[in-house]
Design goal:
Length: 170
């Protein structure tokens, strides 16, 4: 399986909210096509109730078996990058855990229920890189529908060779 990877920078936003159960909402804000020479979790801007941070560098990995997913993401017209952040044990800090251009993998990240997951627009430079990868490695796979075996009319047998008649099994 051919693999390619690219380092990107991730910017996230923390917004204070008036809610009895939570104090703040975190969300990915944007992807930088280049990793800046900035320390992770550097404050980039602060407004009344919003703070923007450079969360750090992450790697986007591409696999040749997933090119159909990348192609679908690009064909959508507004390609996205999925970002996952996880709360550190015993604290409010977040750890950058995953960045992907694969929509199937991105949607699966939402199933955890505990992580901060979001999408951001894919920068044009990264979209060009993904498109070049798809052009180079995509192989169209033909779907072959499997035919089912026809029923013979005989009752199925249990593993030891006896008929299952009268056993209550169906």
């Amino acid at each position: 399986m051919t693999e390619a990877s690219r380092e990107v920078g991730v910017v996230v936003r923390r917004r204070s909210v008036d809610n009895p159960w939570i104090d703040e909402l975190w969300s990915p804000a944007l992807i930088l096509d280049e990793v800046p020479a900035t320390a992770p979790w550097t404050v980039l801007s602060t407004e009344a109730d919003t703070t923007t941070y450079y969360a750090g560098a992450a790697s986007i990995e591409l696999f040749s078996a997933e090119t159909a997913n990348y192609r679908d993401n690009l064909a959508d017209g507004a390609p996205r990058i999925w970002v996952a952040l996880r709360r550190q044990e015993g604290g409010a800090e977040l750890e950058l855990t995953k960045v992907t251009a694969d929509p199937t993998e991105g949607e699966a990240m939402f199933e955890s229920g505990c992580d901060v997951i979001g999408t951001v627009p894919m920068p044009p430079e990264i979209a060009s890189w993904v498109a070049a990868y798809v052009d180079r490695f995509h192989v169209e796979r033909v779907f072959h529908k499997r035919k089912r075996d026809r029923a013979t009319g005989e009752r199925p047998r249990v593993p030891d060779g006896r008929s299952d008649e009268g056993t209550g099994r169906r």
